[in-house]
Amino acid sequence: MLLFPLVPCYLSATMKFPGKRKSKHYFPVNARDPLLQQIQPENESSVSWVVGIDQTLVDIEAKVDEAFIVRYGLSAGHSLVIEDDVAEALYQELVRNNLITHQFAGGTIGNTMHNYSVLADDRSVLLGVMCSNIEIGGYAYRYLCNTSSRTDLNYLQGVDGAIGRCFTLIGDSGERTFAISPGHMNKLRPESIPEAVIAGALGAGADLLPGPLQAGRADAGRDDEGY
Question: Where are the bilayer-spanning segments (predicted)?
């Protein structure tokens, strides 16, 4: 039983959108949005950017047992620098046993460039090293995938080997053990720092640890420089 009479409904050829609209046109747009009239297109040749020089490294987080920590000569709850061959064996075991929970881009300056590009929706340039051969799903692949597309990575120097890797190994009790492998992250050559990129930058920053890492990050950090 109907509680109200049926009323014929007619559709107009031009339907009205409910509420207020900031633009009076949809498609095609014959008039510019009045809110955007004062915005002038950017001249790309005059735009500045920010540039950073970093030790490119990947933060790798995994859940392991105590035997894993002992097997690789690590000290539970501490941070140690490990040799590249040890790091590669450690990484391959993590991959083989599906123990990795996260792989994401690390590095102070690299993160700064990424965050700037995300928040400002603007160009930044990162200088550093990157693996010449990148395996899909690997740590270098994850580094590139997790960096903003507005961060210009075209100037990265290719290296035959690994970039830096910082392993965060979480034990059954939740205790974290850190293992750092520098790889080739300190092998950035002077010719891989284009003068034009630096000269046109609005700001520049660097977080560098010169020479081989002989001790933990806390000791090497005294040589860090920021601009």
Answer: none
